[in-house]
Amino acid sequence: MTKIAFKMKLMRGCKEEYQKRHDAIWPELAALLRESGISDYTIFLDEETNTLFAVQRQGDGAQSSQELGNHPIVQRWWAYMADIMETNADNSPVSKPLIPVFHLD
């Protein structure tokens, strides 16, 4: 099992809407993530910078949530979220991988 982290950018003033949409995450999207080997997925918000920090575990050989972009469910989710996040031309969130520098079990 691998743990990865990445950051994304939320538009100013969209915290409540982002939270609302994730509180009602589509069951088919949650199922796809689980079926793809993604678990223990958490997103944190730095309110000073509107930076979202995501951490997820991946089963051996699993793709990250950001690598599932060819799936129609993910494409629909990205389009749904595009009005409140920084996105690329294909509606995927602008996402930057984070490098682990410390870990304590």
From TrEMBL:
GO MF entries: L-rhamnose mutarotase activity
An example Gene Ontology biological process: rhamnose catabolic process
Domain of life: Bacteria
GO cellular component terms, semicolon-separated: cytoplasm
Keywords, in A-Z order: Carbohydrate metabolism, Cytoplasm, Isomerase, Rhamnose metabolism
A UniProt-annotated Pfam family: rhaM
EC id: 5.1.3.32
SUPFAM superfamilies given in the database record: Dimeric alpha+beta barrel
Record InterPro entries: Dimeric_a/b-barrel (IPR011008), L-rhamnose_mutarotase (IPR013448), Rham/fucose_mutarotase (IPR008000)
Cited HAMAP family: L_rham_rotase
Protein name: L-rhamnose mutarotase
Biological classification of the source: Bacteria, Pseudomonadati, Bacteroidota, Sphingobacteriia, Sphingobacteriales
